[in-house]
Amino acid sequence: MEQTFIYLQVLLESLPISSSTHLALLGLSASQPIMFIAHGPTALMLCLYFWQSWKQYVPTSPQALQRLGRICWLGGIAETLTVLGFLASSKLALIPVTGGLAVTATLLSLHFFLRPGTRNELSTRDAIIIGCAQALSLTPGISRMASTYTAGRLSGLPHKTAFEFSCLLQVPLFAGACVYGLWSAWSTGTLAPLLTLPFIGGLLTATAGAYLLLWGVDIIMQRRLLWLFGLYIWGLLVFLLIRS
C-alpha cells in the first residue's frame, strides 16, 4: 500500500490538483517518513527538467555568483513565509477540504482571463506574494503549484519566470523532507523493506512519468489552457458535495 502511495504521489505532484487531497480521496495513506521520502524523486525530477535554465546559478563566474545570491535571497523570502505558514498549519487544517478545492478551482479558472506577463525579472514583491501563496497551499485541498504559479502570473510575471520560480521553491523543501524521511525510516527499521529492485524500478518509472506529466502541464500553461484543470476541480468539488 505504501509503495502505491509513493508511486502516485510522485506522479500527481506534477499536476496542479493537490496530490495529497486526491490520495486521501483514493483511500491511500502512508507513515510520515514514507510521505517525506516520496518528495525526493520530485526534487530530482525538477532539477533535471529545469537544468538548462537553472545551470545559470552554478557559481562558475562572478556574474553567476551574483545571480545565485539574488535567487537565494528571493527564494529565502518565499521559503521563510512558507515556514511561518507551516507554524500556523494547525489552524489552516481546520478549513474543510472542499473549501480548499474551491480555492484551487478558482485560482485555476482565473487563467481563462490572464494574459501574458510583461516582466521577466523577479522582484522582492514577487517573492513575498508567491511565498504567501505557498504558505496558503498548506491548507487541505489547495494545490501548491496552482497557488504559487497563479500568484506569479497575477503579479505580472510571464509563464516561464512564474513556472520556474514556483518549481524552484519545491526543490529545497522536498529535498530536505526526503533526507529527513530517509533518516526516520532508517532509524525505525522501515527503510530496508523498500530497498528492492521492483520498488526502485517502479520509482524510476513513476519519476519518468512525472517528468512527462510536467512537460504536458508546461505546454498547457504556455497555451493558457490551465483553466481546464479548474473545470476538473469544480467537477470534483460538485461530486464531493453531492456525495456528502
General description of the model:
- This protein is an all-alpha fold.
- The protein has one domain (2-199, 209-243).
- The chain has 14 helices and no strands.
- It has helices at residues 2-12, 19-25, 32-37, 39-49, 51-54, 62-87, 89-92, 97-109, 124-136, 144-154, 159-168, 170-187, 197-222, 227-243.
- Helix 1 runs parallel beside helix 13 and helix 8 (97-109) packs antiparallel against helix 14 (227-243).
- 36% of the residues are buried.
Q: Roughly what percent helix?
A: over 70%
Please tally the helical runs, counting DSSP H or I stretches of 4 or more residues.
14
> What's the Cα radius of gyration?
18 Å
Strand content: under 5%
Average pLDDT across residues?
A: 92
Q: What is the ordering of alpha helices and beta strands?
A: HHHHHHHHHHHHHH
Query: What structural category arises from helix and sheet content?
Result: mainly alpha
Q: How many E-type strands?
A: 0
Characterize the quaternary organization of these chains. single chain
- Tell me the domain tally: 1
Distance between the termini: 26 Å
Q: Estimate the global geometry from the Cα principal axes.
A: globular
Unreliable stretches covering 5 or more consecutive residues: none
The main β sheet shows up as:
none
Keywords:
single chain; 244 residues; mainly alpha; 14 helices
Summarize the structure.
With 244 residues, the protein is mainly α. The chain contains 14 helices and no strands. It has one domain.
